Amino acid sequence: MDAVLRNALIYTSNEAQPWADTLVVRGDRIKFVGKEDEWDRSDALGEIDMGGRMILPGLIDSHTHPARVAMSQWHIRLPWTHDVNELLRFIREFGEKHPVREMPFIYFEYYPSTLFGAGQPTKELLDGAISDRPVLCQDHSEHSHWVNSKMLELMEITAATPDPVAGLEMFVRDESGEPTGLVFENAHAHFLEKMYEKLGWQPPEEITAESVRPVLRFLSEHGVTSLFEALVEDEEILRALSQLEASGELHFYYEGAPRFRTLEDLPSAIARATEYQRRYGSRRIRIGTLKLFLDGTNENGNSALLDPCVNDPSGLDHGEIQMDADELTACLLMCNASGLDLHIHMVGDRAFRTACDAVEAARAQTSDANEEWRTQVTFAHCELVDPEDMRRPAELNVIVNWTPHWSGGYFGEESKTYLGESRWNRMYEFNSIAEHGALLTFASDVVTDYELHRANPFFGMQVANSRVDPEFPLDTGRYPGSVRPRQASNLSLERMIKGYTINGARQLRIDDRVGSLEPGKIANFVVIPESIFTLEPDSMRSLVPVAVVFEGELISGSL
């Protein structure tokens, strides 16, 4: 592109020059950003009158799962209901319409996490709907699964089967140790191949350029020009992205993160990331980060908490944590020695404090040894943070990543069962963390095709700015306007734009190239019809850019 875009409302995400009205692009680079009367017109270029439309830097989704979305396209959507009988009736009728020969395994999503109240789903209950083949139902938190007896049988899960990660990635059991049919996290994933082998069938989950293309197209059309994939399970997604890049269809800067679970398996994860980078690393693809799940979720009661769960009469249940501070410190030191970054899932306040303590210890040990600290650490989710720890990410140079579309009622009030009213009310508070000086980045964290529409960054901005979820509103009788407490935690549009642009670029280590509109940087930008600051609040989620430019090339819409 060689053009002067004039008469625009340009938000640059560059603190030295926040606003401009003229953007000049030469090839794939930004040549000028500023006021129209400051542009040297001796360099003759075609001019485009933007008519007051708004230009933002290309948006960055700093924690999402395009591979898992592509893999989920065969899943069956459940009706959204809090009536167990209605849900079971749907499942039974679906099974009757689709015999075993057509669908040997049925994967349903989602059922409300509060569907069973204080109780839990059982395999026997699901057997009553379908028992002639394996069935899995995923709950809305995406961290619990309800399976029938046939699935447990084919996976060979018994009382003697050890859990992949006790207390976190596990099969819930009765008093005799037998699995009940409730599964936390992805414990079942370790046993699926046994089931598929017995069925003589494989799900249509292969990741190809063709299968991932619609997911990436959606993100592109909604202004996303860079993304972080928070869990690279194998190299299929990297192979697909490389093919798209070779054919000129990869309009993203991509960062992917293989997973490790313990200090013991960290060396193999480092080797895997290194090999992936050697095979697939390019100007647009990087594999330089590892992923760790430090705890579970507040909705399942297995987040790591400083104070015990309110529903535990013993006062001893503080949730679960993957590793203590010493082991995490050792992991951080190994990552630093390998030159890899670390992206840590954490939800509870004890997980947050443990991670802060580990980063502090690792950095101190590195300094004492006169070694350079190279690892960039990102804390993902951070749903519950003790007020005393709000300052620590800034002090430790840790990035905090949040999913704005969760800021309202998306997960309902499920976590109150474990956290109680007071802690639930102060969840999702990030302004204090930012005001202490830490970088906030923002993301969609979508994992299925069911919720892909919520990967629109403008959807996330609307929810976090209002703390009202337009699709899953809280009870207006108890929460006026469906606003989630506390309203002081609403994220400003300015803060979110920075998090979706320059801060996200810093997380992905590409801020020298993109993230803000400055001379010399790559021309990645988004055009929207009018100022985001004057839109009707409830209309933001429907916003679709009129144009998206990547590396100076128009990839969506029209200028």
Structural features, described:
There is one protein chain. 28% of the residues lie in helices and 19% in strands. By secondary structure, the protein is an alpha/beta fold. The chain has 2 domains: 74-199, Diaminopimelate Epimerase, Chain A, domain 1, CATH 3.10.310.70; 209-550, TIM Barrel (Alpha-Beta Barrel). It has a 6-stranded mixed beta sheet with strand order 3-2-7-23-24-25, with no helix packed on it. It has a 6-stranded mixed beta sheet with strand order 9-10-11-12-14-13. α4 crosses α5, α6 packs across α7 (236-246) and α9 (325-338) packs across α10 (349-368). The longest helix has 20 residues, at 349-368. It is globular, with a radius of gyration of 24 Å.
Secondary structure layout plus pairing:
Elements: E1 2-6, E2 9-11, E3 19-20, E4 22-26, E5 29-34, E6 46-49, E7 54-57, E8 59-64, H1 66-71, E9 76-77, H2 84-97, E10 106-111, H3 123-127, E11 135-139, E12 144-147, H4 149-155, E13 171-173, E14 179-184, H5 192-199, H6 209-221, E15 224-229, H7 236-246, E16 253-256, H8 266-280, E17 285-286, E18 289-293, H9 325-338, E19 341-346, H10 349-368, E20 377-381, H11 392-396, E21 399-402, H12 416-425, H13 431-435, E22 440-442, H14 457-466, H15 493-500, H16 502-507, E23 525-528, E24 547-550, E25 553-557
Parallel strand pairs: 1-6, 2-7, 8-15, 9-10, 10-11, 15-16, 16-17, 18-19, 19-20, 20-21, 21-22
Antiparallel strand pairs: 1-4, 2-3, 4-5, 7-23, 11-12, 12-14, 13-14, 23-24, 24-25
Helix pairs in contact: 4-5, 6-7, 9-10
